[in-house]
Amino acid sequence: METPHTAGKGRKDRRVRIDLAGRTAVVTGSSQGIGLAVATGLAGAGARVVLTGRGQERLDGAAGELRGSHPDADVLTVACDLTTEQGAAELGEAVPAADILVNNLGIFGSRPPLEITDEEWRTYFDTNVLSAVRLIRRYLPGMTERGWGRVQNIASDSAIVIPAEMIHYGMSKTALLAVSRGFAKEAAGTGVTVNSVIAGPTHTGGVEDFVRELVGDLPWDEAQREFMRLHRPQSLIQRLIEPEEIANLVVYLSSPQASATTGAAVRVDGGYVDSIVP
Predict the structure, then answer these.
(1) Domain total in the chain
(2) Which residues are catalytic, by number?
(3) The model's pTM
(4) For residue 235, how far is the Cα from the chain centroid?
(5) Which domain holds residue 220?
(6) Could you give the strand order of the β-sheet that contains 75-79, starting from the edge strand earlier in sequence?
(7) CA 265 to CA 184: how far, in whole Å?
(8) Of 23, 83, 97, 209, most Cβ neighbours within 10 A?
(9) pLDDT in tens, 102-125
């Protein structure tokens, strides 16, 4: 008879092992924060990773940081401005084909709703939405032709719970949910999946600045608690999410094991969105 101490001994190891060897993954906005954490996770699973950003120096630093944790990682950096058609073309020339595309590039910031200008609305749409659409158009045909691929658009809880202090940001992330669902239908039956990842309030350098902008120059632990209490009280974990926690879900959705998940908006939000439906 099995006991708690003997149960499972001698049995086949059933732990999930994600193997992305031989796959090329493009991660946008990956010189820091969530993007770099995602690229690091994908590299750890064996993928060749492409880091993108506008500054080569920052990309070189990110590549060095990634190789520090994964010395054998195959890492390519491409400096380009993906908010423009030219930047997308430059990336396409450097990396003609990709198996995994993670559209993480995005900007955010607080603004009184009635003060958001036409130009700011356009900038948020171009950066957070159109940059993703351009790259999906570029890489999706090759994925469907090969019969395998993974596209993920990094959205936000703000897509569903629109913050009063940044409606323009929330709008752009809501649009990404529609983009993901629509392109998932375009890829139906091909072996390619397209999903959104709804990231909750996440601890990055940019978010630290944003938190202090809202709650003042308090010691970080106190500032984080005050921010969550005043501005994100729905969070069930009552803390900011670490970038690696977002990356864990992205790596899974990039894997063969996630072959039946497509057209979805998958949450890694710390329970922030008050809904029992994903």
Answers:
(1) 2
(2) 169
(3) 0.91
(4) 19
(5) 203-240
(6) 75-79, 48-53, 24-27, 100-103, 149-156, 192-199, 265-268
(7) 11
(8) 23
(9) 999 999 988 999 999 999 999 999
